[in-house]
Design brief:
Length: about 350
């Protein structure tokens, strides 16, 4: 968003909760970190208000609704209009009263998907015309089509004849909605139908032990690999390693990982209940599946492994080009220009 705003000619002042003070190409960055915990949150709120008092901007954008109350204070003290960005599960009926009040007072709310927009409007007291849809974007220069890494194949024990299903997700009990355990439930059926298939999970967290136990119980522990944390610079190579990217989630606000996978030319499967629907362009860019139905997940994975679907889904450069046209940075910048009230 910052890149797009700069390219649209706006002068930026940036405040980051987790950043140290410094600069971001051409702009001052006021950072609050790293203090940790509530102290860092308080420092970020104070830094944000101080920046508004000092610079008197024409508009404030908070990229998380949790800091809506800070933006609302800036409006109250200095008359500065503000926009909030809603991502998905951050918007729910149990929001604190102060956050809900900020959402209702916002001059504009940006929702990253239709599912997220519906969640915002379900809160009540928010005018539909004040909620703009702005899907996430992709760094198409980093997530590109390239040959799979032989070193990664060796690292994960992938031998000729193996096909790879990939999920990228934190292994956290709060994120089980992403559906990685249901892929393991489906894996025995997938392997019976499609032959040697490996399931590679990129991400770490306390839920890994439970998932590993589930793999042993289902008799597929030899087919499941846990990559753990993968740094950003190595992520594209993991997408390129996969024949199918699958994340049958039920609570995804959008799913940037789908765009990353497709930008690397890997066909994708997503759930049909959440923001994944937008990321997959309602089934135009990838396969949507009932995310709680293990048989449906198995059938969908086998379908893509057997290249059943639009021919261009399995042409890596064509898939890359399609997702860039739909969700690349040029498209994002134009949607952002239309979404903002200034």
């Amino acid at each position: 968003m910052a890149h797009a705003l700069a390219e649209l000619g706006h002068d930026l002042r940036l405040v980051g909760k987790s950043d140290r003070s410094g600069s971001w190409p051409g702009y001052r960055l006021s950072g609050a970190g790293p203090l940790g915990g509530r102290a860092q949150t308080a420092a970020f709120a104070l830094s944000s208000l101080a920046a508004v008092a000092r610079d008197r901007p024409d508009h404030v954008i908070s990229t998380h609704v949790n800091f809506g109350p800070v933006a609302q204070l800036a409006k109250r003290f200095f008359g500065t209009p503000f926009t909030l960005v809603a991502h998905g599960i951050d918007v729910h009926q149990g929001l604190p009263k102060t956050t809900l009040a900020a959402l209702r007072d916002a001059d504009r709310i940006i929702a990253v998907s239709s599912w997220t927009r519906d969640r915002v409007l379900d809160l009540g007291g928010i005018e539909p015309r004040n909620v703009s849809l702005l899907p996430n974007t992709i760094d198409e220069t980093r997530f590109t089509v390239a040959p799979a890494s032989d070193a990664l194949r060796r690292k994960y024990g992938i031998v000729p004849g193996d096909r790879v299903v990939l999920t990228v997700a934190r292994l956290d009990h709060r994120e089980r909605y992403k559906g990685y355990d249901r892929i393991i439930e489906a894996l025995p059926s997938i392997r019976r139908e499609c032959g040697p298939v490996k399931f590679l999970i990129v991400g770490k967290g306390e839920d890994q032990s439970r998932v590993a136990t589930l793999a042993r119980e289902r008799g597929v522990n030899d087919a499941v690999s846990f990559a753990g944390f993968v740094p950003d610079e190595a992520l594209a190579d993991h997408y390129r390693l996969a024949d199918v990217f699958a994340m049958p989630s039920t609570g995804e606000g959008f799913g940037i990982v789908f765009l990353e996978a497709m930008s690397c030319g890997t066909p994708v499967i997503g759930g049909n209940r959440d923001g994944s629907v937008d990321a997959l362009d309602r089934g135009g860019l990838g396969m949507l599946v009932e995310p709680m139905n293990v048989e449906a997940i198995s059938a969908a994975v086998c379908c893509l492994l057997n290249k059943q679907g639009p021919e261009w889904w399995f042409d890596r450069p064509a898939l890359h080009n399609a997702v860039v046209r739909k969700y690349g940075q040029d498209a994002f910048r134009e949607r952002l220009r239309q979404a903002l009230p200034f």
